[in-house]
Amino acid sequence: MKKLSLLATALLASPVFAATPQDWVTTIDAGTYAGATGTITFNDHGYTGPTGVGAMDFEVTSTKTGNTGFDASRIGQIQHVVTTGPDLLTSDAAATFKGDKVTAPTFTNASMDSQVNFYKWGYTTVAGSTFNNMQIDKAGNYHVAKNDMSFQFYDTFQYHDTTGANPDSTYDSGFNFKPHVLSDAKGWCGSVLTTDPSSLTQMAGQVTFDFAFDVYGGDGGPYPGGSGSTLYDMQIVPGFVMRSYGDYEVNVTAPNNFVQSYSASAVMNNTNPLTGELDPAFQNRVSFLGAGVIPEIVWILDHGLNPDGTRNVEIVTETTEGAVMHYNSFGGYAFLLRADADRTLDFISATGFSDYVGAVPEPETYAMMLAGLGLVGTAYKRKVQANKA
């Protein structure tokens, strides 16, 4: 195989940025969203993925085979991601949250690190949500099976006043949520554009999947029958998109005329959230964002209960045989999810992980790379703990 020039290799090792950042606007129409109106705007920062795919693309066409979408016979790498919870390093502006109980306080100047906006309430994305066996083919297509994605329970808001005027506190919310995934995820990953998928390079990607979240009241467990818990309803969200790059602006007026206004920026992989620069202390640290509005009605096939007690449903069209109408009681409520996580590479193909990088290291080199991958997360945690000391 002819080796690439140093210049060509350097270009392939860098993320691809479009000439001009672009805004992608989703209009929230009252008919679909229970009377809610407004927009959700995503700015892509000019970042594009393999073959120039962007924010509205979820499949890559291979430059080698001409096939479109994930190819299980050409897996180049496998990774997993685990959320870490807040580290108070977010670059997002502080915001005001209201508690979801009548007697709850208002939280001013709240840090937005790993927080979820939902209506006027706030929840914290805690450590332990997992995305396992994230397969990436050599063209850059993602595939993550729904059973390999698991969210933690959302039942608290961890308040940190960025001005220092109020002490840190944890608010025990009245409404609690347990998300669960309804479909496999697909999308694209930018790590195939680098000469090494674990390199200290700005890289990002996105996936889309259907998910639901069960709504509970009280302080019991996340599943039906938990002590003190009451299962109110299941909210179903089709086509949720989770991205690790760009900015979100949510400006949606709820059916009761409450203005839901949120904004957030992703920290690209391997980047220091305070400086915006590549930083070895943040190597294999990722962040991701997603925003949306709960629709009023979704058509589903109900396949009964999963082993964990959640409902196994499939989103379909109204004309699908056996389809039933599901009504979301929180239709028109907007949300914005933030999370930080550690990324670990579990597998790199010895025959090459990418269609775009011409110089493929020898199998022995890959073996050495994999041997060192297990140290990445530990080294990162040691550095963070040292910084906090």
Per-chain topology:
Layout lengths: L5 H7 L3 E2 L5 E6 L8 E7 L3 E2 L26 E9 L11 E4 L7 E5 L4 E4 L2 E4 L5 E8 L3 E4 L4 E2 L3 E6 L9 E13 L3 E5 L15 E13 L12 E14 L3 E7 L5 E7 L19 E9 L3 E9 L5 E5 L8 E4 L6 E15 L14 H11 L2 H13 L1
Antiparallel strand pairs: 1-4, 2-3, 3-18, 5-10, 5-24, 6-7, 8-9, 8-24, 10-11, 10-12, 11-15, 13-14, 14-16, 15-16, 16-17, 18-19, 20-24, 21-22, 21-23
Unreliable stretches (pLDDT < 50, length at least 5) are 1-15, 221-228, 375-389
Please trace the helix and strand order, writing H or E for each element.
Answer: HEEEEEEEEEEEEEEEEEEEEEEEEHH
Average pLDDT for all residues: 86
How far the N terminus sits from the C terminus, by CA atoms, comes to 50 Å
The beta-strand count equals: 24
Largest sheet: 13 strands, antiparallel
Number of helices: 3
Strand content: 35-45%
Provide a brief overview of the structure:
This protein is mainly beta and 389 residues long.
Descriptive report:
The protein has 389 residues and is mainly beta. Helices cover 8% and strands 42% of the residues. The protein contains three helices and 24 strands. The termini are far apart.
Question: What descriptors fit this protein?
Answer:
389 residues, mainly beta, 13-stranded antiparallel sheet, 8% helix, 42% strand
